[in-house]
């Protein structure tokens, strides 16, 4: 008898929950319809507010970071100078090299309108050969900036061993 009553109680609880779910779904569907009507009444205002872009503008002196022809193991640091030519503060969210041999470092504080700052780029100069990499900079502007890193690292100079012994007048042969 207890098992039958318990089973009935469980079935009633499931039915009540199912009824609530149907009612909640119906209410949610009605709310969605109301939201659609509201959005149709004022789509421009809503879209403009959501799609607002920052008025910051990052302008580089050059989009190419040229190492030229450099010696193996020479100074890896180069500077890319930029200016915020917009009307709002510029925030750099991220900067990443195309591979692990190109490492950028950027300012973390906002750059005020009209102010300039530097982006440091380090390339592993212990890799001989042509340099053809890129650095992608993401800002609050909404669009990425891509800097090209080019140049050439000369091969490592061979160290000359101790010269072989030469015949000497004093020692003879």
- What value does the average pLDDT take? 80
User: Alpha-carbon distance between the termini?
Assistant: 120 Å
Total number of strands: 8
N to C succession of SSEs: HHEEEEEEEE
Number of helices: 2
Order the strands across the largest sheet as they lie in space: 1-3-6-5
Coarse morphology: elongated
User: Can you tell me the CATH architecture of the largest domain?
Assistant: Sandwich
Report the C-alpha radius of gyration, rounded: 34 Å
Number of domains: 2
Q: CATH class of the largest domain, please?
A: Mainly Beta
The residue fraction in helices comes out at 25-40%
Report the sheet-strand fraction: 25-35%
CATH fold-type name of the largest domain:
Immunoglobulin-like
Give the oligomeric state of the chains in this entry, treating copies of one chain as homo and distinct chains as hetero.
single chain
Description:
The chain has two domains: 43 residues; 96 residues, Immunoglobulins (Immunoglobulin-like, Sandwich). The protein starts with a helix and ends in a 20-residue tail after the last strand. A hairpin with a 4-residue loop joins strand 7 and strand 8. The radius of gyration is 34 Å and the shape is elongated. The chain has 173 residues and is an alpha+beta fold. Helices cover 28% and strands 33% of the residues. The strands form two sheets. Strands 1-3-6-5 form a four-stranded antiparallel beta sheet, with no helix packed on it. Strands 2-8-7-4 form a four-stranded mixed beta sheet, with no helix packed on it.
